[in-house]
Design a protein that fits this description.
Elements (H helix, E strand, L loop, with lengths): L9 E5 L17 E4 L7 H14 L5 E3 L9 H6 L2 E7 L9 H12 L1 H5 L9 H16 E8 L5 H6 L7 H15 L3 E5 L8 H7 L6 E5 L5 H9 L4 E4 L1 H5 L1 H6 L4
Parallel strand pairs: 1-2, 1-8, 2-3, 3-4, 4-5, 5-6, 6-7, 7-8
Helix pairs in contact: 3-5, 7-8
Bound molecules: SN-glycerol-1-phosphate (1GP).
Length: about 250
Amino acid sequence: MNVDWDEITHVTKVDPAKSLPSDLGVLEGTDLVLVGGSDGVTESNSLEAIERVTDVFSEIPVFQEPYSSSHVSRETIEAADAVSIPAVYNGDRDHFVGKHVELFTEVGQKPDELLGSSVPLVGDLIASKGVEVVAELADKLVGEGYVVQHLESTAAAVSGVDTAYSPDEVAGAALATEAFYDFPIFYVEYSGTYGGPGDVEAAARYLEETALFYGGGIDSSKKASEILEAGADAVVVGDCFHDDPETFRETIPE
Ligand code: 1GP
């Protein structure tokens, strides 16, 4: 699926470890669904959440955002439109480099399981098939430059984040995302609390091609508008979707 980033202003973050609203019709009008979380997530609950959303809304792109390569399987890759992988600038080394190399190492070692290859991985085929398999997965991979700014969040705890970035550093991370790493998404993550427009304003001035996502504590149309007016391309709404689906509807721009 080709995603038109210019069309994405509202993103719903579905945590597969939490229960989903019984009526998924509340998702009407959201532009993208990210399936992922930091606690209690498994391959099977990820797959179930992806399929529940795609069963109801086949036209909304659904990305799996795995926290660990163990959440990714051939089934999840096939069911999702893309696999988005966070690279956390202000986290520990594992969350910028380690887990990415681990994922690609696993792809090379067990492509059958991950991608359904039917070619036996023996002898000379290892090298050639390995390249094809990685290319196949790479087609579905979307890198996300992340800064995790709420130090009390589970996201910060599991990514080894113990220092929030200053607005100047957020701006630097945004510029690095667009000009150096070339990821399509730069994500200001305040998971669980509302961080306000400051970091978004700092990042927005450097981003042209890269989509600027802000997530954290969005539970009203006022907050969603404030973030979009500060220069974010999209707001990401998580907790409110699970906890209060009716209020969640108000976060979707008309
Ligand atoms: C979490 O950025 C998302 O990854 C959304 O945050 O759950 O606070 O809405 P909330």
